[in-house]
Every structure is written in structure tokens, then in C-alpha cells.
């Protein structure tokens, strides 16, 4: 117990340093969410489209990224691909955002596809009867309704990305997890700095969950 108390005392000046890593974690999650949302829309449209080649490629893409560990994808992107193509040093933060975004796109595509399929098919038929072509119908009528219905699921994906961002410490991105490891190595005590990160991640996730629940209730009232 005395060692634990000593560890907390030694760590106290480094608490702001650890907590500031939250902006790195949220930045990765936000950047990856934007990429994942754009990629998810494109993949979902390919999946429900009439072009079999594009539909097949989209399903293969989704299968690969959903069927393999995210940490392995990150390792391949940061260590494997640069070595394979002799690219030299790669910015770890950029690599993390892109990798997380590509991974998120696979999950977002299924969320968006389910949202599109939930829209009344009669609206497609009505648009077709009025002479509106497929892409304007999708862009102006179907997608806005689908996105409105899946906003809670999209918030859950953002929460998942925020938690999973801790693995970027494996490629030396100085997020909260990495900063905790640095502080732990300096004071030779792992529990206190890891506890700070645990509490911060929990607070962030609970705050995002609360916002997600409020958003879902508001969506229900608007219906």
C-alpha cells in the first residue's frame, strides 16, 4: 500500500500530461469517423447497386476489415506496407486515422445499408414514377432519411472508435494510453497512471453514451 501511495505522489505532476492525451484520442476517433462515414456511404451504395463487380468488391472489403483484428491492420499499415514499398518513415498519427477510417468504413457500410433498406420502398417507386433518376433519389430522398434513422448507431461507432484508439500506443502515438506508459516507465509504477487513463476513458465514454441516448430520444420524439 505504501508503494501505491508513493506511486500516486510521484505521478501527480504528470496527471495533466496524461489527460491532455484525450485530445489525441478524440482527434483520431473524429478523423476516422469522417473517413468511415464517407467510405461507408460509398460501400453501401455499391452493395445495394446493380453493378455486380462493385457489389462483390464492397462485400470482400467489408469481410476483410470486419474479419481481421484492428491492431493487426494497424501493424500492417504502419510497419508492413512502408517496408514492402520502401516508403521510409510514416507519420503514425496519419497512419492511425487512415487505418481506423478504413476499418470504420466496413462497419459503417452495414449500418448505412440497413438504414437505406429500412426506408419505405414505395418512395423509390414514387420517385421513379415521377421521372427522378436513381442517384438524385438516393441523394435527396433516401439517404437523408436513412442517416436520420441510424444516427444512434453512428454515435455507437464513434464511441467504439474512441475506446479502440488506445491501441495506437503500439505505434508510438502519444495518446492517453501511450502517455500513461511513458509516465509509468519514469516512476517505475504502472497502476497509478493506468488508473488515470481508465477513469478518463470511462468518463469520455459515459459522456458520449449520454449524448447518444439524448439524440436517440430526440429522434424518437421527432418521429
From TrEMBL:
Superkingdom classification of source: Bacteria
Database matches in Gene3D superfamilies: MetI-like
Transmembrane segments: 20-46, 58-81, 187-211
Membrane topology note: Multi-pass membrane protein
Keyword entries, A-Z: Amino-acid transport, Cell membrane, Membrane, Transmembrane, Transmembrane helix, Transport
Location in the cell: Cell membrane
Similarity annotation: Belongs to the binding-protein-dependent transport system permease family. HisMQ subfamily.
Record-given protein name: Amino acid ABC transporter permease
Species name: Sporolactobacillus kofuensis
